[in-house]
Amino acid sequence: MTAPAPDTRDREPAPTGGDGSAADDSSDPGSSTPSPTTTTAPEQPEQPEKPDTAAEKRRGGRWRRADALVALIYLAGAFWVTARGWRDYDGRLLGSRPNDQGFNEWMLAYAAHAVTNLENPFFTTLQNAPAGVNLMTNVGMQLPGLVLTPVTLLFGASFSYLLFITLNLAGTGYAWYHVLSRHVVDSRAAAFVGGLFCAFAPALISHSNGHPHITAQWLVPFIVWRVVALSRGERVIRDGLILGGLVVAQFFISLEILFLTALGCLMLVLAYLAFRPRDAVRRLRPLLSGLAITGVLVSAAAAYPLWMQFAGPQHRVGHPGTPDIYALKLGSFVEFATKSIAGGPTSAIGWAPNTTEQASFYGWSLVVLAAGVLWWLRRETTVRVLGAVGLVSALFSIGTTWTVGTRRTDVPAPFALVQNLPVFDSVVVSRFALITTVALGVLLAVAGDRLAARRTEPAGRLAARVGAVAVAAALLPILPMPLDAKGRTPVPDFVTASTWRDHVAPGRTLVPVPVNGMTSLYWSSAAVAGFAVPEGYFLAPVSATDNTGRWGVDPQPTAKLLTAVSLGERDTTVGQADVDQARADVRYWKADAVVLPDRGVRRHDDLKTVLDALYGPGERVEDVWVWDVRPFTR
């Protein structure tokens, strides 16, 4: 994140007209502004183009071609990372967290359902029927779901998910490149390296294993830059409204990333206040005025979803487990991620909570390079601010206690100071290092720009070459490898061919057997959330009287019985008490049908025997067995 330092470039130099006058500031960088010409009679030949205007056009053309090339490179890199999923998007799960992918596919499917049926995008009973799921206290993604609705309806939720996770990487990279090249550095190559790191560092690659709400950071650079622009006090009302629009959009993409962005901006302001107190105080007045305008706009747009988040049905407080379960280790910053060139299946074991939370893992070479850049450019306020922001956020990601190697000590660490504050108690601690990643990316761009500026000097050319080699050597080990992919259990034709509509009324519940949360989500996603399902995969309160966060809910007794049969933990004998409970449970679920697929189910025959005993003889429909339970539930 950049500081509002005077030694950082504000914008591209404005093009000049043929008479040497400045063109309109609102013109795009590299675009040309026709010079004023004297009115001539129609029969006179057109005046030749003035030399500086022609040069401006040629430069603008080069810039546009460079921008297009950068976008293509980022897009190619994104497809490289997700390539194995594209081979069969319906038949494969991308990455190491299939449950996370299943939940996010369902979120996209539900968004399409909510749009086409005008239903509440923030709460639904179509998952975890009948209690429902608070979508704001989970991963909302309302805006991506809305934008991708046509894609989801045409190609399915699995295609939309894969497209989303791929474009997030390319879009985040290009967004950082755009902001860096227009507002921070003169060198397009330096901006490219900064954008490359911000999008393809281990943090975003590891979160591409199932967290599209985390990798959707393409608005973050614009939000950060608008905060910097506000501090200048040039157009406070306009900049405040623009920032408000960006914040509202990010709110409906990922509330967690918005929180981390706000925290990073606060760190930026405090660091600038420490290094340049007089200038910082001067800038605070327009900044606070603009933020007040932003706050009014955001409050109006987000009032209801914020109520849902903190007080609505099924809201929860905190995150399951202690913060340190999801914390990084100090040594993780010099280790290599699982999906990096220098990493491997075991390289991150013990250093990160799981394969999605490898938000550091820069390797020794990059840490040494960053330290060298901080020393070299230590007189620049921008560099000092970036160093401070990166360091503080890295320390927060360590958790509540310091670590030695992979062992956690009892010595309190910085996050212990804020762990019980609202919102902080719900953040996955390792994700504070996402702020560090941005700070490093911008630092690389600034360093590259300073080297590029010295190329006109004899000694500077050598320094630029040495610097380029050092950056390449530092980045090469952490460049990403393609994510893994594995097959998924096919959803029955009964669901994909919409045959379920003959057996389940809209909004009523279809119960897959065994009653498994992920099976419920995959089937519901394939039907674009056309029916409700029991259980699921989500965060919820412990109970109606305890809103502490937990994963999922306790299964109903019949769900436990069927799971035990499928695992061979009990035989097929059922008593009258089991029958009464089974019929009470389908009434609780508001179910119309219980469905057992022919494929992909262990102990299929035993399950069918038990279901026949509980609900009467089932009916074979296409590739499933269906038990019509409407006589017990209507």
From TrEMBL:
Residue ranges, annotated region (Disordered): 1-61
Keywords attached to this entry: Membrane, Transmembrane, Transmembrane helix
Record InterPro entries: DUF6311
Amino acid composition bias (Low complexity), ranges on this chain: 21-42
TM regions (residue ranges): 66-83, 153-177, 189-205, 259-275, 287-307, 361-378, 385-404, 424-447, 459-479
Biased composition (Basic and acidic residues): 47-58
Domain DUF6311: 121-450
Protein name: DUF6311 domain-containing protein
Biological classification of the source: Bacteria, Bacillati, Actinomycetota, Actinomycetes, Micromonosporales
